[in-house]
Amino acid sequence: MSWICERTTNWFQTLALRILKTGRVPRHVAFIMDGNRRYANKQKMRKGEGHSKGFEKMSETLNWCMDLGVEEVTVYAFSIENFKRSKEEVDDIMDLARQKFKRLLEEKDKLMEVGVCIRVYGNMSRLPEDLRQLIAEAMVVTRENNRAVLNLAFPYTSRDEITHAIKDIAKGVKHNDILPEDIDEDLITDCLYTYKSSNPDLLIRTSGETRISDFLMWQISNTCIYFTEVLWPEFSLWDFLSAIFYYQKCYPDLQKIRNNLKPIVHNSKVSTFVDKLHNERDIMIEKMYLSAVQS
Question: Is the pTM of this model over 0.70?
Fold first, then answer.
């Protein structure tokens, strides 16, 4: 299945989207796509097929988000904790990722036309080299797209993200790029994997689990969180619209909190360090991309 699937909404669903669009639309929606394995068991299929169905649902949901006017979508595609699962299941997920990123690159003209930018957040050093190269190529070829952003947390946990941010800051202190007294919440925020993104306005978790599972823990302190019982592959447009309606009811209280938040402002020394760190990360992706296209 393509990353951008054909429109599947009927006239009534389209009308419902238009009605909700007259209200406050979240700029950034995050998803914990839970329930693929339980769906596979329910349908008596292999776990890998359940994850494949989950990808199809992600593509469909991305379309709904774009139709509604959501600018950024972040999905919890694979937790670092999931490496503890059976080798067969992990291998199936890695193979599925290879297939989908290859498909993305084959259809990059379509993605460029739609205007979707693909970003991948996480500890990519834990992925096979060939998959890292495919991911880097997808990120580079779509990085100028600006209609919508799809962030894939793969492989990711908040604890790993914060640990790496602290290590980068410690390295900056060691090299005298910054001083210990420069370290504050704003600096840590700008050293996270998600430094290019705004914090999510709405987080949706499927499958009936009411926990966050180490996903964007730093970023969701002022996020509206919506839990639903439905398994991810069975997540429907109506489930999505219910979450949006819930967000719209919560919005006045969220807005009061966010109005008190101040924009991040660094001194020149810290700004130079942050720019250097971001540049190093971009260069790392560029090198992986060049390695992919030259091989």
Answer: yes
Q: What is the pLDDT of residues 126-183, one digit of tens each?
A: 999 999 999 999 999 999 999 999 999 999 999 999 999 999 999 999 999 999 999 9
**Closest Cα partner for 126 from 166, 82, 190?**
82
What is the C-alpha separation between 246 and 103, in angstroms, rounded? 35
CB 144 within 8 A of CB 170: no
For 237-247, the pLDDT digits (tens) are 999 999 999 99
Collapse the DSSP code of 295 into the 3-class scheme (helix H, G, I; strand E, B; otherwise coil) and give the result. Answer: coil
Residue among 143, 120, 152 at smallest CA distance from 31: 152
Alpha helices in the chain (DSSP H): 11-21, 36-42, 47-68, 87-106, 108-114, 129-142, 158-174, 185-190, 237-259, 268-294
Q: Is the dihedral of CA 126, 213, 88, 233 positive or negative?
A: negative
Which one, of 238, 236, 225, lies nearest residue 17 by Cα?
A: 238
